[in-house]
């Protein structure tokens, strides 16, 4: 096996495989390292939004959605207090209906790995990446030290001028190169129901409970995924305390958990090294935007590092300059998805009565239909419009002329209501902008 490449990618998951294909098709020699090439079994990464499907098409990997019994997803049904609202996906820019896909995560990853392995410029290596090799003079990354699966006592070094770390939410190398800390506010606990039909076919189902949201969606013709958000520290599964959360499927399905992590994005500033995917940026999976961000990041990065822009990956300063561009350019999509995911989760899991008011206003806003549900699927201004809806819904009606009457008693409830809920709203929004991007 050749021990020198143009690019080393650590992690053959969603992003790693897509990146391997993208750069291999630009005639870069790629080494793709994966600890375990058997089919992964996870309870997240099962819903790809329309924007992710479009990015997959741009990468020439749309075929990876085939032959895995995937289900076409047309939007969401949101339930609250016995009521529901339909939130369809908006049409694509080419006029075609917006369509997402749901599937077994492992099957999708295996198709991506097959696509990567089929590229003549990709070498797949099954083993553990133990260490990033740094140049003792420049401190730049120059390769990866690995041990082959089943032979942990032996190590082999691979060298390349550029290394991409894409080893996921439990990244082994994140702490060495990113100062920001991962925060976990809740966990998804999930199981699969067999041969259970949801109320609305080809839609994700979101149940807004009193404590936190519940998600349900088909991942195959036979299987339906159920995810329950458990705020705070996860109860013990072994003690049985967690089983009180569920009333069905407990006799046949094991309960599995996954932390809902948040990690704001960081600019890649270490020479010879790029962190991508969940290793660099995470948001609450409530909106299912993680894979969409990942695939779009690959599209954008492969364009910025195209041989016409960066002929040689040894040009460290040029790549660092491109990574600055990448950091700001990706915000046009990632900021919307990151903030929307965190904001919706905070809103729909809030115990604060003040945020309960915003939650009700948000649901009423959805119920207006039309652009009120089509546009906010992709645009953050949902919350700005929601605030006006909240103030309108919970402000006592007064004669319009009272607004201009300085001595009117009728206007005082308006002032107090606006001040009370408006203050909490704008504090919430300011908090998102300051902490999440």
Automatic annotation (TrEMBL):
GO molecular function: flavin adenine dinucleotide binding; squalene monooxygenase activity
InterPro entries membership: FAD/NAD-bd_sf, Squalene_epoxidase, Squalene_monox
Cofactor(s) essential for the protein: FAD
Subcellular location: Endoplasmic reticulum membrane; Microsome membrane
One Gene Ontology cellular component: endoplasmic reticulum membrane
Claim: Flavoprotein is one of the keywords in the record: yes
Main location: endoplasmic reticulum
A Pfam family the protein falls into: SE
GO biological process: ergosterol biosynthetic process
Enzyme Commission (EC) number: 1.14.14.17
Catalyzed reactions: squalene + reduced [NADPH--hemoprotein reductase] + O2 = (S)-2,3-epoxysqualene + oxidized [NADPH--hemoprotein reductase] + H2O + H(+)
Domain Squalene epoxidase: from-to ranges: 160-376
EC main group: oxidoreductase
Leader sequence residues: none
SUPFAM superfamilies listed in its UniProt record: FAD/NAD(P)-binding domain
Topology class, membrane: Multi-pass membrane protein
Superkingdom field: Eukaryota
TM spans (from-to): 6-24
Keywords on record: Endoplasmic reticulum, FAD, Flavoprotein, Membrane, Oxidoreductase, Transmembrane, Transmembrane helix
Function of the molecule: Catalyzes the stereospecific oxidation of squalene to (S)-2,3-epoxysqualene, and is considered to be a rate-limiting enzyme in steroid biosynthesis.
Family named by the database record: Belongs to the squalene monooxygenase family.
Name by which UniProt lists this protein: Squalene monooxygenase
């Amino acid at each position: 096996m050749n021990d020198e490449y143009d690019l080393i990618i650590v992690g053959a998951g969603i992003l790693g495989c897509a990146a391997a294909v993208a750069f291999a098709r630009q005639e870069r020699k790629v080494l793709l390292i994966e600890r375990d090439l058997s089919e992964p079994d996870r309870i997240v990464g099962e819903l790809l939004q329309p924007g992710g499907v479009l990015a997959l098409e741009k990468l020439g990997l749309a075929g990876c959605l085939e032959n895995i019994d995937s289900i076409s997803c047309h939007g969401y049904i949101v339930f609250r207090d016995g009521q529901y609202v339909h939130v369809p996906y908006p049409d694509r820019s080419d006029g075609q209906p917006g369509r997402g896909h749901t599937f077994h995560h492992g099957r999708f990853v295996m198709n991506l790995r097959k696509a990567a392995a089929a590229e003549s410029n990709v070498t797949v290596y099954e083993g553990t990446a133990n260490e990033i090799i740094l140049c003792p003079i420049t401190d730049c990354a120059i390769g990866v030290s690995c041990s082959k699966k089943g032979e942990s006592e032996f190590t082999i070094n691979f060298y390349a001028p550029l290394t991409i770390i894409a080893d996921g939410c439990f990244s082994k190398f994140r702490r060495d190169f990113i100062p920001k800390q991962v925060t976990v506010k809740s966990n998804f606990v999930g199981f699969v129901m067999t041969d259970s039909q949801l109320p609305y076919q080809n839609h994700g189902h979101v149940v807004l409970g009193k404590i936190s949201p519940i998600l349900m969606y088909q991942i195959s013709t036979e299987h339906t995924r159920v995810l329950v958000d458990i705020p705070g520290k996860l109860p013990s599964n072994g003690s049985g305390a967690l089983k009180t959360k569920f009333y069905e499927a407990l006799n046949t399905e094991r309960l599995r958990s996954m932390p809902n992590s948040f990690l704001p994005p960081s600019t890649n500033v270490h020479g010879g090294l790029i962190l991508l995917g969940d290793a660099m940026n995470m948001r609450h999976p409530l909106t299912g935007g993680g894979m969409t961000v990942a695939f779009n990041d690959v599209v954008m990065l492969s364009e910025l590092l195209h041989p016409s822009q960066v002929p040689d990956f040894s040009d460290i300063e040029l790549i660092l300059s491109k990574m600055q561009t990448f950091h700001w350019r990706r915000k046009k999509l990632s900021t919307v998805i990151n903030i929307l995911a965190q904001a919706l989760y905070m809103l729909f899991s809030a115990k604060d009565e003040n945020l309960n008011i915003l939650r009700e206003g948000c649901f009423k806003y959805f119920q207006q239909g039309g652009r009120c549900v089509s546009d906010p699927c992709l645009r953050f201004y949902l919350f700005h419009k929601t605030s006006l809806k909240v103030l309108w819904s919970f402000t006592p009606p007064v004669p319009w002329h009272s607004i201009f009457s300085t001595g009117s008693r009728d206007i005082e409830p308006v002032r107090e209501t606006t001040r009370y809920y408006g203050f909490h709203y704008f504090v919430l929004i300011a908090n998102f902008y300051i902490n999440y991007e």
